[in-house]
Amino acid sequence: MKNWTVIVKILAALAAVAGVIYVIAAYGDKIVAWAKKLLGCNPCADCDCECEECDCIEAEAEDEAVAEETEEVAEEAAEEETVVAAEDDFEG
């Protein structure tokens, strides 16, 4: 009986470690962003430079590009005609 409890404890520990690894792999970037936000670590918060090398400038450019692409896709979808099925399509 002691052997089974030891085996179950080892399996439970391995499952816990696997769960932590999964959470880190799946949500690691969100966790890091949250931690930086919590600690106030924003390297560009006090950035008064006019250079193009800042990470904040690159992130803003990427966000703008994604927003423009999303708007274009939405406009294309709105322009497409809506297909309506007729009763003849369902007759067998």
In what range is the share of β-strand residues?
Answer: under 5%
- The shape, in one word, is flat
* Unreliable parts: none
H and E string? HH
Give the N-terminus to C-terminus distance in angstroms: 66 Å
Calculate Rg over CA atoms: 26 Å
Task: Output the number of helix runs.
Answer: 2
Question: Would you give an account of this structure?
Answer:
- The chain is built from 2 helices and no strands.
- By secondary structure, the protein is mainly α.
- The model has no long low-confidence stretch (mean pLDDT 76).
Quick recap of the structure?
Helices cover 68% and strands 0% of the residues. The chain has helices at 2-39, 55-79.
Provide tags for this entry.
68% helix, flat, mainly alpha, 92 residues, 2 helices, 0% strand, single chain
Sequence-ordered SSE layout with sheet pairings:
Layout: H1 2-39, H2 55-79
